[in-house]
Design goal:
The protein is mainly alpha-helical and about 260 residues long. The protein is built from 19 helices and no strands.
């Protein structure tokens, strides 16, 4: 299927089947008729934007992938990053995934887009989820989503947070809904009220996922240890200088642990 583009209906049908969901089950979940969903999958009907969002949530796949707006370059960069982090050559990955080396090179260079079957093979070969490849590098609602979650966690209404931060409730609502991006000084005011850093709102989720995906399995297992989590909770309130001190100590330990 090199170079081919799956239609919206094909993607919905393939992901539905890949999830082991029948047409009727998905239709019931979406509260629509099976005949309507069938028409969508067969490209006879086009779903509305709200319906498309509901379908993407039900199938656990991004809207951007379903409508075909994913950036092949981003997917290729993610593939190269993960392959290299695993210490694999193109030939190694080709043997594991049973995909031609020439096709993998085209994927990584953004000259071709992998279809669902290709993504399944690559995700299994690299031990990552398909979503790793499908999610966009920049999600317009990520900042607003984090802002809303943190505000709600602290029991603040939009009006209360807006008043404390010195911004209008309308602007705050627009930020949370992804309709606008705040100026840096506005974000700093909001961050201070919520007792967090600006970087919390700006860090890309993919940065965290990439880091976790490349960690040694032993390290990932260790992160689940209650004692390790206690250490992480202990340093979460440190300021920048205190964190730098801890990092310098870790670096010193790494350089001299052979003496211990």
């Amino acid at each position: 299927m090199e170079g081919e583009r799956m239609s919206l209906g094909q993607k919905i049908r393939d992901f539905r089947k890949e999830r082991g969901i029948t047409l009727t089950e998905l239709a019931n979940q979406l509260k629509i008729s099976p005949s309507y969903l069938s028409a969508v999958e067969r490209e006879i009907r086009k779903p509305s934007i709200p319906m498309l969002k509901r379908i993407s949530e039900a199938l656990n796949v991004s809207v951007s992938y379903l409508v075909g707006s994913t950036d092949d370059t981003v997917t290729g960069e993610k593939l190269r990053f993960m392959r290299e982090s695993r210490g694999l050559s193109i030939q190694d990955l080709a043997e594991i995934s049973e995909l031609p080396p020439s096709l993998l090179e085209k994927f990584e260079n953004g000259q071709a887009a992998p279809d669902l079957e290709d993504l399944k093979r690559l995700s299994e070969a690299l031990n990552v989820t398909i979503r790793y490849f499908l999610d966009q590098a920049d999600r317009p609602d990520s900042l607003g989503y984090r802002l809303r979650k943190l505000r709600q966690k602290q029991g603040l209404t939009v009006a209360a947070l807006a008043e404390k931060a010195g911004v209008s409730p309308g602007l705050l609502s627009q930020i949370e809904n992804g309709q606008t991006t705040p100026l840096l000084d506005t974000l700093e005011k909001i961050a201070r009220v919520l007792n967090t850093s600006v970087s919390y709102f700006l860090m890309k989720q993919e940065d965290v996922e990439d880091l976790l995906a490349t960690l040694n399995p032993d390290v990932l297992e260790t992160l689940g240890d209650p004692n390790v989590q206690a250490v992480l909770r202990a340093v979460r309130d440190f300021d920048a200088n205190e964190i730098k001190y801890i990092l310098n100590f870790i670096q010193f330990f790494k350089q001299n642990r052979h003496l211990l």
